[in-house]
Amino acid sequence: MKIETGKRVELIDITEHVRDHVTQSDVKQGICVISTRHTTTAIIVNENEAGLRDDILSLLERFVPENVSYAHNRIDNNAHAHLRAVLLGSSETLRVINGKLVLGTWQSIFFAELDGPRKRIVDITVIGK
Ligand code: ZN
């Protein structure tokens, strides 16, 4: 799946797109892996509530501030984005039962852009029978 992000840092809800992939895969029982190919993006599962989305981005700013000296910034000025991606992780694995993606009531799947805006690729792999 291709995503063109519009901001420097943002969380994009990709839940419906992943659900469509699961439906089209015809897998009834299995797993779905959502993974990003980039080193300054991440995949997370959490609640899609506007305040919480802002809180997650502020948490990242507090944990890994942008204006600090990092070794990687000698060659590329985006060490903070790589480090935030390390903390969040590059993939999530979810169950597929009876042909449906299993998510809790308040769970959504987000693509986290940490050094945008850019063109990005997310891989959605459904495995099972
Ligand atoms: Zn870099």
Structure, described:
- The chain is an alpha+beta fold and 129 residues long.
- The protein has a single domain (2-128), classed as YjbQ-like (Jelly Rolls).
- 27% of the residues lie in helices and 35% in strands.
- The protein is built from three helices and eight strands.
- The protein has helices at 15-25, 50-63, 79-88; strands at 2-4, 10-13, 30-36, 41-46, 91-97, 100-101, 108-113, 119-128.
- The strands form two sheets. It has a five-stranded antiparallel β-sheet with strand order 1-8-3-5-6. Strands 2-7-4 form a three-stranded antiparallel β-sheet.
- A hairpin with a 2-residue loop joins strand 5 (91-97) and strand 6 (100-101).
- The radius of gyration is 16 Å and the shape is elongated.
- The two termini are 22 Å apart.
- The model has no long low-confidence stretch (mean pLDDT 98).
Given helix and strand content, the structural type is alpha+beta
Quaternary state of the chains = single chain
Strand content: 25-35%
CATH topology: Jelly Rolls
Radius of gyration: 16 Å
Strand tally is: 8
Second-tier CATH architecture: Sandwich
Major sheet characteristics: 5 strands, antiparallel
Top-tier CATH class: Mainly Beta
Main-sheet strand order equals 1-8-3-5-6
The helix content, as a percent range, equals 25-40%
Low-confidence stretches: none
Number of domains: 1
Query: Taking all residues together, what is the mean pLDDT?
Result: 98
